[in-house]
Design goal:
The protein is of the alpha/beta class. It is built from ten helices and six strands; from the N terminus they run H-H-H-E-H-E-E-E-E-E-H-H-H-H-H-H. The chain folds into two domains: 48 residues; 238 residues, Collagenase (Catalytic Domain) (3-Layer(aba) Sandwich). Strand 1, helix 4 and strand 2 form a beta-alpha-beta unit. The longest helix has 62 residues. The N terminus is likely disordered. It binds zinc ion. The site of zinc ion has 4 residues, from helix 6 and helix 8.
Length: 305
């Protein structure tokens, strides 16, 4: 025993033994911390996946339900494109409207009382944009505010140290990561002529899709990586084309408001894509093809377009 002890002492030394004890304690502290991090991360992933699964199940359940008869009649009356859509897309729209109404909160402003007809009108026109989208949801806020008529908004602009405050009359707006605000009388005006390329609901919700990738810049998230080059080329070329035509008052398909900026161009082009599909396909085939790929639908083939 004594000889063994001496051999052991010489081999390891007192410092070596202490170092091993220290290393063991040190390693055990690291291991505990690592185990804690791994367990917390694992738990967070499980919770996140579970919530995602629950959300997806709820979405699938709501999207597969068809609306009650009175709501279908309302949808048909308030979404003029509905009647000309193929039956499978009509059914899809009903499901998406169901999801939308379940997800969004409507508020009336300036004394407006929000009715079912108003909710169906907003949901039905907005969900046209989602019919065949891979991610059929609008990002950002769940709040929709309705005004009875056009409304006055306060605008603050900065020029260096100078801050200017002004007012502008609006028929709708989409706040970045915030609510969508709409004027009911302008909604009614927009749907009263479904071929004029003006639909404030489509316009504002196109802005919502545009902000999906953070910036509202006229470049939403496209379906595939190889789509971006063509999108940039066509949109740049068509934005310049609209600017030139608008100066000569020769713009026949797109509203001149699209010349304000690339995001406005995208929103205006989306309105025309749905309401003037045939015309856009004939006169502006390249932009029609880009939007057809983005939205996954072909409104030019819907009857009455
Ligand atoms: Zn706009």
């Amino acid at each position: 025993m004594a000889r063994t002890w001496r051999v052991s002492w010489r081999t390891c030394g007192k410092a070596g033994i202490n170092r091993r004890i220290f290393c063991y304690q040190y390693n055990s502290a690291i291991m505990n911390a690592l185990t804690g991090i791994v367990a917390t991360t694992f738990l967070a992933i499980v919770v996140w996946l579970s919530l995602r699964w629950i959300r997806e199940r709820k979405f699938q359940r709501l999207a597969s339900e068809i609306l009650a008869r009175p709501y279908v009649e309302m949808l048909s009356a308030q979404v003029p494109l509905y009647a000309g859509m193929p039956a499978n897309l009509q059914q899809r729209l009903q499901g998406l409207v169901n999801v939308f109404l379940n997800d969004k909160n409507f508020f009336g402003s300036a004394g407006l009382e929000v009715t079912d007809q108003m909710r169906i009108t907003v949901a039905g026109n907005a969900c046209l944009l989602l019919l065949n989208r891979e991610n059929p949801r609008f990002p950002g806020s769940r709040t929709i505010i309705l005004y009875p008529d056009t409304y006055i908004a306060t605008e603050t602009t900065r020029d260096g140290l100078l801050v200017r405050e002004g007012h502008s009359v609006r028929l709708g707006e989409s706040w970045h990561r915030g609510p969508v605000i709409l004027s009911w009388s302008d909604i009614v005006d927009g749907i009263s002529d479904p071929t004029d390329g003006q639909n404030v609901i489509i316009h504002e919700f196109a802005h919502k899709l545009d902000e999906e990738n953070v910036a509202m810049d006229g470049l939403p998230i496209l379906n595939a990586a190889e789509d971006y080059t063509d999108w940039a080329r066509v949109m740049t070329q068509e934005f310049a084309g609209l600017t030139a035509r608008a100066e000569k008052r020769a713009n026949k398909v797109l509203n001149a408001y699209g010349t304000v900026s690339p995001p406005e161009f995208f929103a205006v082009a989306s309105e025309a894509f749905f309401e003037r599909g045939k015309k856009m396909q004939k006169h502006l085939p390249e932009i029609y093809a880009q939007l057809q790929r983005f939205y996954g639908v072909d409104p030019a083939t819907w009857t009455g377009r």
